[in-house]
Amino acid sequence: MPNMRNKAPNLYKLGQDGLRYDDGYPDIEDISRHLRFESATGSVWQNDQKVMVFPVSIYESLRIKLIESLGLDDARKMYTSEGYEMGQIDAVRSQKLRGKNLHSFIAAGPQLLALKGIGMVDPLAFKVDIEGGIINIEAEAIGSVEADAFINNYGVGDAPACWFIAGHASGFFSWIMGKPVLFREVECRAMGHSRCRLIGKPLDEYDNVEKDAKYINHPDFLRHIPNRTKRRKLQKPPAKYNLASTDTDNSKQTPGASPGFKVVMQKVKKVAKTNATVLFIGRTGVGKEFFSQTLHSLSNRSKKAIITVNCAAIPDNLLESELFGVERGAYTGATESRPGRFERANGGTLFLDEIASLTLPAQGKLLRILQEGEVERLGGTSTIKVDVRVIAATNVDLRDEVDNRRFREDLFYRLNVFPIHIPPLRSRLEDIPLLMTEFLKKYSSRHNKSAAGFTEEAVEALLSYPWPGNIRELENMIERSVILVEDDELIHTNHLFTSGEHLPENIFSVDRQGKLSSSSFHNINWDELAHRALEIEESTPLLNFENALIKVAVDKSAGNISSAAATLGMTRGQLDYRLKKDK
Ligand SMILES: [Zn+2]
Q1: 71 alpha carbon to ligand 1 midpoint, in Å?
Q2: Which candidate, 16, 174, 299, 544, has a CA 20 to 30 Å from the CA of 32?
Q3: CA distance readout (Å), 157 to 144, 201, 267
């Protein structure tokens, strides 16, 4: 068993600033190639350690049963201390594999964690100086299955859920530094935060470490607890956890199944019945309008209208008259009085998208409406009472806008009463299949087409694409593919990625030797392939190569000619012709 006092040797002299992480992560191949699948004995190995591959759903239900039988606190202790042990084991392994370079040695910790499928830890701020005993890390845990498990079963709670991850980081860096290092999760998706954020520093730089030390349950940590009780009392699991209410209403179908989606929906349902101003924060295309509509339809105002204004789409000089209305003669061309969108939304909801685009004068007027509930039309002399619930959305950080004096601070606080972060699509993978089905249905009917569905390769590509344009990009891509595909044929990668989208390359699959290797379904080196063909045979007629390719494609699609044609980038007709000609 590795011991943290086996301090890792100082391999590099570090600068004043300590070690920097600017280079990003090294290639994972040196670690991943140590993952072996032995089908004859039914075992999977990561280096010298036997591991198991089983569905996250099983992991989740085991975890929930454990929480329910042990109680939240003892379950947390179990996972944290197991994570700590694993972190120490991984530190030893990392040193063996990458001991010569401190940067990649340290990077192996999160990479080994990622290979277990638990999540990825990405540094946000990083300073490590082993000799000087300095460690100060801020990191984000991406895709944590621990947070997902909690959210899927309990919704949003009031304590962080990434126990194993925090324990793993603590164990890993304690071994490296040769002294207790504590990683504490300060934000967690399971608490409704937009991300899981951890900070890591030496244990003695924290206050109130009793609980943390109890969770890690390692002698070097427990020593730091003053007057700790010697004997552990037997605890009964609490009958009820202090959790936010979870919603079991599944009657209304919503296009989302991911934990990220569920958290947003839970917040939307919670705030809908109140009159609170809501601020949606998320990148372009994440579905802010969908959630606003849903919020309105669940509110007591649902019988009245929701009026949507995209503040960025209306020219500056028209925005104020659009929002607040105008009296006849207010300016040249104002030939008649008309109400603004605030008045039209009276009794209902006004959704202000891209709120950061509002000019400063318009911000001032909006603030007054929110404070007084009164609108004054442009050129008007009296005020009009309005009862409007405001939902705003932004894809930029409004705090930055406030700092740069582009957004009024007082208005920011008015709007930020109930902020809801909407995560990007790439962290909501479970939503993709549902959205695919929905968009396929929608555009098949709109364009009067009947695609047969998606090939497996297309599904894999859609699940691994990073979606910089989020749901809107997915929707556009599926609409395009529906137009391109022939009736009754499957949608293939070629129908989807037609605008030069860059597919990620770090997808792994098990090769014939049972080893994990980079899958290259989209990135074939044709030159190399041609060279090899010519090396094997002195003469390789082009036709032989073509025929072989066609045969493999037909075999692979189990005789389905449409699907084989799609694989080859041909139409069904073209392939039919080739097959008949060769007979
Ligand atoms: Zn978390």
Answers
A1: 19
A2: 174
A3: 16, 26, 12
Q: Degrees (nearest 5) of the Cα angle 514, 519, 523?
A: 150
pTM for this entry: 0.62
> And the tokens for 451?
């695609």
Give the distance from CA 259 to its chain's centroid: 10
User: 272 C-alpha to center of ligand 1: Å?
Assistant: 26
What are the pLDDT digits (tens) for 543-552? 777 888 888 8
Q: From the centroid of its chain, how far is CA 189?
A: 10
Residue scoring higher pLDDT (385 or 564): 385
Task: Report the separation in Å between the CA atom of 142 and the middle of ligand 1, taken as the mean of its atom positions.
Answer: 9
> How many Cα atoms occupy the beta-carbon half-sphere of 237 within 13 Å?
15
CA of 166 to the centre of ligand 1 (A): 9
Provide DSSP, 440-468: HHHHHHHTT----EE-HHHHHHHHHS--T
As a whole number of angstroms, the distance between CA 516 and CA 525 comes to 19
CA distance 343 to 352: 14
Tell me whether residue 180 is exposed, middle or buried, using C-beta atoms within 10 angstroms of its C-beta: 0 to 12, 13 to 18, 19 or more.
buried
CATH ID of 427-582, from 3.40.50.720, 3.30.1050.10, 3.30.2000.10, 1.10.8.60 = 1.10.8.60
Contact 564, 489 (CB under 8 A): no
How far apart are the CA of 431 and the centre of ligand 1, in A? 20
Nearest to 270 by CA among 247, 287, 291, 253: 247
Protein fold of 29-222: Muramoyl-pentapeptide Carboxypeptidase; domain 2 (3.30.1380)
Higher-pLDDT residue of 331 and 225 is 331
Q: What separation in Å is there between the alpha carbon of 141 and the centre of ligand 1?
A: 7
Measure 58 CA to ligand 1 centroid, in angstroms: 19
Chain segment 462-493, per-residue pLDDT in tens = 888 889 899 999 999 999 999 999 888 889 88
Span from the CA of 42 to the centroid of ligand 1 (angstroms) = 33
Burial of 314 (0-12, 13-18, 19+ CB in 10 A): middle
Q: Which amino acid is at 470?
A: N
Task: Name the residue ranges covered by the structural domains of the chain.
Answer: 29-222, 260-329+336-423, 427-582
Query: Ligand 1 centroid to 79 CA: how many Å?
Result: 13
**Exposure pattern of 226-261 as b/e (b: 16+ CB <10 Å)?**
eeeeeeeeeeeeeeeeebbeeeeeeeeeeebbbbbb
Element (H, E) at 127: strand 120-129
Q: With contact defined as beta carbons under 8 Å apart, do 181 and 203 qualify?
A: yes
DSSP annotation of 15: -
Instruction: Provide φ and ψ at 476, rounded to 5°.
Output: -60, -40
- Domain 260-329+336-423 class, CATH top level: alpha beta
